[in-house]
């Protein structure tokens, strides 16, 4: 499978109706480099990103490229202050990462969006509603 950036690069190349060798020549790289970046076996260098950006991309494409690069990271570092359960969650996930069904991946991604949904939802108070005494209700 390809990384999000790999798919992005291939789409840019195809949008310009170019072969890998043509894009490589324009950017000053070998065709093998373009191939390895498109396959996701090699991350793009900053120099490559700069050349790609100035040669092929508009402002919208550049912001999409930055998002795709962020989503294509292969290494993650946990902050020191995270709880122990976070370590366990990451370990469990890593142990099964290559065996997850697409439905499981979709479900996990939806669960991760819950904090955004909860932020937009009114918080219900835990206070009990006090019933009016009979005298108050007859008034």
Task: Explain the overall architecture.
By secondary structure, the chain is mostly helical. It has nine helices and no strands. The termini are far apart. The mean pLDDT is 89.
Bulk shape: elongated
Encode the helix/strand succession as letters. HHHHHHHHH
Question: Care to count the β-strands?
Answer: 0
| Beta fraction | under 5%
- Overall SS class: mainly alpha
State the distance separating the first and last CA atoms.
72 Å
Fraction of helical residues: 55-70%
What's the main sheet like? none
How many helical stretches?
9
| Mean pLDDT score | 89
Q: Uncertain segments of ≥5 residues (pLDDT<50)?
A: none
State Rg. 25 Å
Outline:
By secondary structure, the protein is mainly α. The protein has 9 helices and no strands.
Give the topology.
Elements: H1 4-15, H2 20-27, H3 31-39, H4 46-56, H5 59-71, H6 84-96, H7 102-112, H8 114-119, H9 134-138
Helix pairs in contact: 2-3
Descriptive keywords:
single chain, 139 residues, mainly alpha, 63% helix
């Amino acid at each position: 499978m390809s990384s999000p950036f790999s798919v992005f690069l291939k789409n840019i190349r195809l949008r310009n109706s170019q072969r890998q060798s043509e894009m490589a020549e324009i950017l000053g790289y070998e065709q093998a480099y373009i191939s390895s970046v498109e396959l996701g076996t090699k991350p793009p260098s900053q120099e490559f990103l700069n050349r790609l950006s100035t040669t092929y991309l508009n402002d919208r494409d550049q912001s999409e490229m930055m998002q795709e690069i962020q989503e294509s990271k292969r290494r993650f570092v946990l902050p020191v202050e995270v709880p122990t359960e976070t370590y366990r969650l990451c370990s469990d996930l890593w142990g099964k990462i290559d065996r997850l069904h697409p439905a499981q991946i979709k479900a996990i991604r939806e669960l991760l969006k819950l904090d955004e949904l909860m932020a937009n939802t009114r918080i219900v108070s835990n206070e009990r509603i006090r019933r009016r005494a009979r005298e108050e209700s007859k008034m």
